[in-house]
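Human: My hope is that you can spare some time for a protein that puzzles me. I am handing you a single protein, as its sequence and its fold in C-alpha cell form. Could you go through the record with me and say what the backbone is doing? Take your time, and here it is.
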Amino acid sequence: MAYQAFYRVYRPQSFAEMSGQAHVKQTLQNALLYNKTTHAYLFNGPRGTGKTSAAKIFAKALNCEKAPVSEPCNECETCKSITNGSNTDVIEFDAASNSRVEEIRDIIEKVRFAPANSRFKVYIIDEVHMLSNSAFNALLKTLEEPPAHVVFILATTEPHKLPLTIISRCQRFDFKRITATDIVDRMNVVLADSGIPSNDQALKVIAQAASGGMRDALSMLDQVVSFSGDEMTIEDALLVTGSIGQDIFYQLAESLLTKDVGKVLTLLEELMKEGKDAVRLTEDLITFFRDLLLMNTAPSLDELLELASGEEKFKQLAHQFPVDTLYRYIEILSATQQEMRYSNHAKVYLETALLKMSQVKVTTSQQAAVDLGPFEEKIAQLERTVIALEQQLKQGIATNGAQTPQASESQKRQRLRTQTGFKAPSGRIQEVLKTATKQDIQLIKSHWPTIMTQLQKSHAALLNEAEPVAASTGAFVLKFKYDIHCQMAADNQTFSSAFSQLLMNLTGKMYEILFVPEEAWMKIREEFIRNKGLKATDTDSDSDAASETSETEQAADEMLSFMQEEKAATEDPLIVEAEKLFGKEFVEIHDD
C-alpha cells in the first residue's frame, strides 16, 4: 500500500481519540445515549480542530449495530464501511467545489429515499459557507424539516458567512483551537505507534507552529520525521517549520536590555536572510516577552510557557526586566503587527519596533535611587524656603504688635485702599533682582512663544497681558498688566504647576514663578534702581573699597544696566515731557 500521511493514518476513529473539544464530545455522546439526536448540526471552528472527524464519528455512532452507544464499536460492518468510505448512506459533500444550486437540488431529490444499509442517512457538508445564496435557499426547507431518517452535519470555518436562517435551524457546536499540550500528547502517541523516537523540545516547536490545528501539527511532524531520518532534533524542527530557536530570542532580549542596537538589527538581518517571515517573527516576539512576563508575575506556571523554557538563564533574564518594560514591549509589537497588515514593508516596521523597544528606559532600583538625587535637593531647598517664610511671618506679626495706634490706623487705611488689589512679594522679587542675569531672562523670553502655543487655551489666556521681566537661576518675575489677571494666575495651582513643568522641559531648569502686577513692578524696579545707584555711588567714593566685586554684585550690576535700558526703551519721550510740564499727578495716559 502507498505511504499515507500521518494526519490520514491517525485520524481519530472514536470520541476518546479526539484531542480537546471536551464540551462537544460530552454533548454528542449524551445525545447518542439518550436518543436525543436532532436533524441538523453546525460544526464551526478553525481548520484542523476535528470538525470532519467528529462528524464521521457521530455518523458511525448513529448507525452502529450496537446503538444506542456513546462510542462507535468500529468492529461491526457498518462502522467499518463508514471508516473506509464505502457506506452509501454517509455522504460527504464538498461545498467548496459543489457550490451551485444544481448540486444541492440533487441532494434534495435523494433525501426522501430511505437509507440502504443503515439506520440513518447522514449528509456531511464541508465548507458549507461556500454555497451560493440560491443553494442556501434551496436547502432551507429540507434542512428545517427533513425525513426522520436524515441527519445533516454542516462544517465551516467561517460561520459569519452563513445566512441566519440556516444557523437558526441547526444545533451549533464551536470547536476551539487545540492546546499545545494536547497536540504534543497526540504526536507522542503517533511516534510511539510508528516506532520513532520522540524529542519533547522538537514537538513543542511543532505544536507552537501549528497554532492549535492538529492536522497542521501532524503534517509538519511527518515532514520533520522525513527530514531527520533516524533521530528527530530541535534544529530539524526549527528548520522545517520556519520557527526560531529560543536562544535567538534570548540574544535579542539581552541586546535590548543592554541597548545594543547594532546587535539587535544584526540578529534581525540574519533571520531575514534565512527566510523568516517578519509578521510571524513579530508574533513570536510577542509570545516570548509574554513568557518573560509570566516568569515575573507567576513563576510557578512553567507549563504555560510557549517559547521560553523554564531554564535558569531565562528566569534570570526575566527578572532583569521590570514588568512595565515588558508591557511596553508587547504594546509596541502589537501595534506594529496591526500596521504590518496594510503594508508591503513588514521588515521596516519590525526594525522600527525594535528601535523603539531599545529606547524604552529600563529603570532598575539602583537607577531610580540615582534619579531621585535632584528631587531630594529641590525638596530640601523648598523646606529651607518654607522655614525662612515662617520666620519672616513671625517677625512681621511681632512688629505689627509693637506698632503705635497711629501707625495701626494708617496701616488699616492702607489695607482698605489695597484690599481689592494683589499683594506682590516685593521682598522676594528684590532678592531675585540681586542675582538676576540678562542671560536668564533672555532664555525665558526666547521660549515664550513656544510656551504660549503649548499651554492650554484657558491657561494661555491668563498670559495674554503678561511678560517675564527679570530672572535668576532659580526664579523669575512675571509681570501682569492687570491686578485681576495676576490674582487669578497666582490662585490657580494647576496653571502654576503646568507652566513650571513646561518651562523646565524647554529650558532644563526648574524656576520659581513670582507674580507681580505692572504698577507694583514699576515701584519695585524704581526702588531697586535707586538703591543700587546709591550703593554704586557710595562704593566709588570709598577709597578703601575692594577693587573686585562679588559674583552677586556683578549680577546685580548687569541686571541694573539691563533694567535701565528696558526702562529707557519703554518710556515715551512725549509722556516724559508732559510729566515735567504739568506734574505726574495731573497726567493721565489712555491707550488708543
